[in-house]
Amino acid sequence: MVRFKHRYLLCEVVSDDPRCRLSLDDRVLGGLVRDTIVRVHGTFGAAACSIGFAVRYLNAYTGIALLRCRKEFYQLVWSALPFITYLENKGHRYPCFLNTLHVGGTIRTCQKFLIQYNRRQLLILLQNCTDEEREAIQKSVTRSCLLEEESGEEDLSDGGGEDAAEAME
Fold this sequence. Notes:
By secondary structure, the protein is an alpha+beta fold. The protein is built from 6 helices and 6 strands; from the N terminus they run βααββαβββααα. It has helices at residues 18-22, 26-50, 74-80, 107-127, 131-159, 162-168; strands spanning 6-14, 54-59, 64-70, 86-89, 92-95, 97-104. A hairpin with a 2-residue loop joins strand 4 (86-89) and strand 5 (92-95). The longest helix has 29 residues, at 131-159. The chain starts with 5 loop residues before the first strand and ends with a helix.
């Protein structure tokens, strides 16, 4: 059996209009990328990238998307992304562009990069905030961390013992 290797492109949808991100849908984004590949690379690019291409993750609130494509043809997808200048959904056309943050071989490496990227962005935002805003953000982050720890402890108690504890390690 042959294993097909993939590349994952971690992208950020950048737009001045906040409605652009909220109207994001994985089918719309996938179709937009496919159409752009056809426009830039023609039928060869469309055929090469259509096999194995998928939008694996899309967060409409942060504008982060994870695109999967075959390893041999990831450069075709990557080179077509700068030509996306708008997002069209439900009759509305929003100007935007895709910023490629990372190219990785696994989803896990992209997740690790995204965590580091978000930490750097948070530090940049904290430097530009007032003291009151900084305290509010720190309280919010602390609260969310405590909620995650509580949900993790509930999963351990619901799991029924050693198997769940080993899985968490």
